[in-house]
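Side project, low priority. Logging it here so it doesn't get lost.
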Amino acid sequence: MCPEVKFKSRTFRTLLVPWLILGCLGGMLTPDAGADQAAEVVDRIVAIVNDDIIVLSEVNEKLKPYTDRIAKMGYPSEKEKKMMYKVRDDIINTMVNQKLTDQEVRKFGIIIDDEEVLNAIEQVKQRNSLTEEQMLADLARQGMTLDILKKNIREQMLRARLLNVAVRSKIVITREDARSYFDSHPEEFRGEKKIHLWHIMTTTPKFAFESEIKAGRDQMEKVQARLAAGEAFNDIAREIAAAKGPLVANDIGMFRFGVLSPELQTAVGELKEGEYTELLATDSGFQIFYVHKIEAGAGKQFDEVLADIQQKLFNELVDKRFEEWLDDLRENSHIQIIR
């Protein structure tokens, strides 16, 4: 029995009737319906998008590269089936979105002429340093032709121009918007600080006995106690350096903060000049680090980064507004997915 389908427009009825006639006549054209249980469906409608349709053969064409790849992964049949269904669902939804945007392209009267397409192809060749022959050979390896490439590029350009008309043209990022972002993200613009470190540490052997490790910790805890009592780090360091005993003290130099290990960044990150860390157990032994000097990074001025901030905010807003625009388009369209 042929299903009843109601249509919103005469144009759509005219477009769809041949497909329904073929589907309804399928049984009548078969000499022996009982013997033809294995008859293969050549094509059928899988989605209705306003006055357009998506047919099974179009879905299968886009689905094939994914099904081939999934089939080679060796998953259990149930998992493979679920993955196939998910990919098929995603592809149909993408095709629905493409139909909707194509309809909007027609509504706005957007046109891309042949010269624009050819110029875009020339840019592709230049970016990839390809001759015409190399490009054609590359297309052939992917199972494509020049005509298919032209069609794909035209569709991409039409949708990009639609994005400009429907979304981009309505977005304005003001100087105040950029200033607000600049003020609320100081870490992005202040530059990387440099930090001048000294340290006092044990010289515990790599494969030390427990007694040696304990002796080293005891010596460093005495240094820690002297610092807590108010002795200057510099004075203790000079004394240790002159004694040439089991402890060592060094000026280890100026470092960009970003090159320090994550552990050391955590230990010294909040310290001011003249402050020192807790006793740290490291691969090299027990250590105390002292911040001798901090140099602030050369931060950027607002006007230097104004254009970059505006572009960043614009791109983020375009993505958000496009999703909202597409959701609204779907909400106000007649879409039916036929499982």
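Brief comment: Strands lie at 45-49, 52-55, 194-202, 247-256, 280-282, 285-295, 335-337.
Revisit when time allows.
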